[in-house]
Amino acid sequence: MTSAPLAARLDIPSGPLFFPVTAFAPDGSLDLDTCRTHVRRGVEAGAAAVFACCGTGEFHALTPEEYDACVRAAVETAAGRVPVVAGTGYGTALAVRYARLAEAAGADGLLAMPPYLVTAGQEGLLRHYRELAAATSLPVVVYQRDNAVFTPDTVVGLARTDGIIGLKDGLGDLDLMQRIVSAVRSEVPGDFLYFNGLPTAEQTQLAYRALGITLYSSAVFCFAPEIALAFHRALRDGDDSTAHTLLDGFYRPFAELRARGRGYAVALVKAGVRLRGPDVGEVRPPLQEPAADHVKRLAEVIDRGYALLEGSE
User: Fold this and answer.
1) From CA 229, how far away is CA 234, in angstroms rounded?
2) CA 20 to mean position of chain CA atoms
């Protein structure tokens, strides 16, 4: 266990960043025992951090009471072995409320998702995240995607804000990211973290690595940690041959399958967890379960991924 600041613990991760799903019982209620099992298995498999109640964890579908219970369960299960970062979002008032719940639950940091529904200007977005960062002592990573897309100048403003330590990119505009990285490097002294937060981030991580962005979220780690770890090691060691083998034989087919249904960035991952791990239940509405033939195809893709690992030994 370590008491080092979150930024230092995340800067050079020992393994993939783990975004666990949230487990629900057959009646749709929260299943905390299975949540703990899922998180424990991920930590023991080699996750560098746990990002609880974020997009993959169906933050949008949780009540404040469920959120509080889930974050507490993740913190207790991680037991200080790796940091726990909790999602927060909606409008400023609710984002602050969730942030304070996360702080009281013992989380090490926050992932701030886009404001709900509104498309705001840069000044309003900057004010939103500054108010969120000021509301607790927890360090904040801001998530760029959907209706929260920033100019380089705005990210410079974020980087100058006490408590904001990084930017997670879910947009995929590499030109914009290069300009953001350059602007912050030129104008803000010190380290600022960047994360590749695209769905199936491994698909694009070679390109992000070229920008100097080494951190990325791994949904695959939820259901196939050995594959995610092998890819992470390949990137760390500069083993592009192994990375390309896994991209061609596993990640590309998985990403193509994920693209066949709305909400599959969450629902297909949850189906993968059920195939290989604890029964984490179904997704909550408005998400829907993957088609049966897609789940069957998912099982085949996962088996293919593990066969590739065995062939490389």
Assistant:
1) 9
2) 8
- 3-class state of residue 182 by DSSP: helix
Q: Each residue of 99-144: pLDDT tens digit?
A: 999 999 999 999 999 999 999 999 999 999 999 999 999 999 999 9
Task: Count CB atoms within 10 A of the CB of residue 114.
Answer: 21
Active-site amino acid positions: 143, 168
What dihedral angle (degrees, nearest 10) is formed by the CA atoms of 256, 259, 264, 266? Answer: 70
8 Å CB contact between 313 and 58: no
Does this model's pTM top 0.90? My answer is yes
176-224 pLDDT tens trace: 999 999 999 999 988 999 999 999 999 999 999 999 999 999 999 999 9
Which one-letter amino acid corresponds to residue 17? L
Identify the residue whose tokens are 């997670």.
Answer: 168
Over the Cα atoms of the chain, what is R_g? 18
Sorted by sequence, the CB contacts under 8 Å of residue 228 that are 6+ apart come out as 16, 202, 218, 220, 221
The residue with tokens 């491994």 is 202
Question: How many DSSP H helices and E strands does the chain contain?
Answer: 13, 8
